[in-house]
Every structure is written in C-alpha cells, then in structure tokens.
Design brief:
- The protein has two domains: 265 residues, Zn peptidases (Aminopeptidase, 3-Layer(aba) Sandwich); 213 residues, Alpha-Beta Plaits (2-Layer Sandwich).
- The chain contains twelve helices and 23 strands.
- A hairpin with a 2-residue loop joins strand 4 and strand 5.
- Helix 2 packs across helix 4, helix 6 runs antiparallel to helix 7 and helix 10 packs across helix 12.
- The radius of gyration is 24 Å and the shape is elongated.
- Pfam families: M20_dimer, Peptidase_M20.
- This is Cytosol non-specific dipeptidase.
- It catalyses: Hydrolysis of dipeptides, preferentially hydrophobic dipeptides including prolyl amino acids.
Amino acid sequence: MSSEIRALEPKALWNKFADLNAVPRPSKREEKVIRFIKDFGKNLGLETMEDEVGNVIIRKPASQGMEDRKPIVMQSHLDMVHQKNNATTFDFETQGIVMYVDGDWVKAKGTTLGADNGLGVATIMAILESEDIAHPDLEALFTIDEETGMTGAKGLKGGLLKGQILLNLDTEEDDEIGVGCAGGVDVTATRTYSVSRTPEHSLGYLLEVKGLQGGHSGMQIHEGLGNANKLMNRILFDCYEKYGLRISEIDGGSLRNAIPRESKATVSILESKMIYFEAEIKKRIKNIKGEYKSLEPDLDITFSKTHAPTTVMPTDVQENLIRSLYAACNGVYRMSPDIPDLVETSNNIARVVVKEGHIKIGCLTRSSVESSKWDLANALRSAFELMDCEVEFSGDYPGWAPNMDSAILKVMVPIYERLNNGKKPHVAACHAGLECGILGQNYPDMDMISFGPNIKGAHSPDERAQISSAQKYWRFVLEILRNIPKAN
C-alpha cells in the first residue's frame, strides 16, 4: 500500500517514489510522467524546461554557503521496464504500480517495481523540494526512453547543461561506485517464408517454457540463468531431429534488455509418432530441469494436446531456424582481461517470433570494447544470414570508458569509507548500459560517476528495492552534495 511505503525512512525519498510510481511511465510512452515532472518543477518555482526529445531539466540555485562549489548535474531516467507475470492483470499505460513491504524490501504486486530508475528520480525530486539539504548549483536532468534505446540521452544537445560534475543515480549495488559501462547494439534478424500445409494424420501440441527468473540482460547475464528462447529451441531441435516435429508458431521473450522468462510454441507431430514423441519430450524436460534445479527452481516446461495447426514451416526453413538459434551466442561471449570479474561482451537472444510466414529474432549485444561488440554482432549476423535472414543493426550506443583519475571519485571513496566504518567501495565498470557514455559525447569534459541503492531482479516482476540500503544510499548522497569540490 502507498501509505505503508510513505512511512518508510527516509520519508523524503520514499514519498517521492510513491508519488512517481502513481504515474504510468513505460518506455516510449512517457507523456504522463514528463508532464508530472514538469509540473513538479514549476510548482516549486524552479526554472523548468523540456528539450525537443522530451528530456526535462530543472535548475535549482546553490544553497547558502555552497555558491563557490562546482555546479553539478544529477541525472536519472523517467521510464521503466514494463514486465508482469502472466497471471497478473495490469495496464502499464493507465495504472500506477502497486507496492508493498516485505521485510527489508519494497516489492510490486506481479509487475516490475520501477525502482530502476525511479529511486534515482525520487532522490533528485526530494533534493529539489528540500529547504535544508546543502548542495551546489544543481541541474536535475530527467531523461526519457533509457530502457528501449536511450533516445533521450542521444537527443540531448550539447550546451544545455552547465554542470561540471554528473551524478548518475542508476547503479544497483550500494557498495559500488560506477566509473564505466558497456555499450550496446540491437541485432534483429527477419525473413519471410511460404507456409506449408500440415501433414495429414498430425496431432497438435502446445509447448510452454515458463517460471524462469528472467532479469537484467546486462547486470545478470553472467549468472547463467535460463533463457526461455534457448531452452525452447533445444526441445524443438531434439524433437525435430528424432521424430519430425513441425513448427507452426513460436512466441518467446519480450523486451530486448530482459532475459526471456517464457516461450510457447505450437507444433505438430504425426499421429504414428505420438508415443515416442511424448516419451522423448518428457526425457528432455527432466534433463533440462535437472540442469537448472539450483539456478531456476521454479522452471516449468509443459506440453499439452491442442488442435492441429493448419499450416507449418517448410522443413528447410524450420531446420535452418533451429540450427541458427542453436549456434547463436547467448550469454557471456568474453570476460574482460583487464578488470577482474567484469563481463566484457555478451548477447541476449531476447525475442523469437514465428507466425504466419514471418520470422523475427531480436538480440541485444553489449560490450565495453567497441571492436568486441562488433565482433559478436557480426558473429550473430553470420548465423542468421545462413538461414537467409536480413539482419539489421540498430540502436547503437557507446560504452563509457573508466576514468580512474576522476576528481569526484576521489571525493566519494573516502566519504564512503567514513560512513561505512572503513569499508572500501567497489569501484568498477558494469556490464549494463548507462547513459553516461552517450552524454559524454556532447559533454566530454564533464566528470561523471554512477551509484545507487541495492535493487535486485530489475527488468522482471521479481524486482525489489532494499529499504536499509536506501537509507545507506541516502546518507551517502547527502554527504556527497556537502563535499562537492570548490570551483577553480
């Protein structure tokens, strides 16, 4: 309940988060939240503007005694990933997020929570509204469409911002200070084909992969979580090779930056092969569930009889599809040789759709090294072109190169240690896509850093924000603002 959230400490942060989460804000449909944040700034009597792509900038003068400090930009994105459980009825375009407290965590009922990046937005709102928080000249930058293309950051023109330091509040581990991130590119393969009539004496089956955790396709790609598209393809491959299974339709995955949780396929099998097919698929399900029993305890793979489809894929097209998907890289492609435990390059086979003579496969390829990003993108392109797909690269965005000599980093590390009994923060680059790399193209001299509270399960309905971590993070924010270096 909203009242339960509003009672949490720090109230300034959680109240603004509750206000924000009452406003629908799915990516690419941010009109309501743009209006909301503009009204917020104007009602405070602060200079407020919207740029030509929909980013909102609110300016607040320095608090008394902080006028001689470097001006700063505090930045978060307004949009959120819209994912829900199949059993949940929810309209992200008209409804606010329904939240509740579960121990030390804030969660949402059957949907993504929007803590990514709503807690960052709420932080900035609380500081803009406050009358007693010390801060230098402040520009609040609220970008749009971070989750599905970063078009807000890409469209922000140079010269609009005057700040010398940018605090990006989009990191999801409270002991981490981000100094770099991966870039990315969407790899989309498409083709058409002429459908074939389903062979006579065929039975129809619905195959379903569900119950996977899903999650962030950058921050969690190294965890080895199940990808519903790859698991479905594995079953289809085996049953085609042994028993001539024919595919009619596939619908797997959802958003490009979310590890696929579910996939379903409508297939047919000759009636004479039914007993052998059912025995084989039971064996395959048992094997896969055994492989993933510790990582994916709720994995559920089912098959059930349905009406036989009237059309199926031609055998040559089907064979090329399942072989290409088997060959296509999913998960970690290369670890960084320079930064311990950092994924350098990865791919997420995010979406597979086969329907009525059309095939569409969507991937998000990430890397902190441009040449490695394109190496993997071209490997995927080759796999899909071998099945006569047209392959498009789109949504390309750069990574953010680490600057270990950052002035704001040298301020933040000792503050963190002082607040946390001498414990050192983890200064690192991350495998997620942050807007810093893009913003840095038009603001190359701006000193940038990223940090945030603990958020788990981002981009999935299991997303949750840790209450005690938010309190730790809030104290860190206030101390950083008090200690921004003096202007030269």
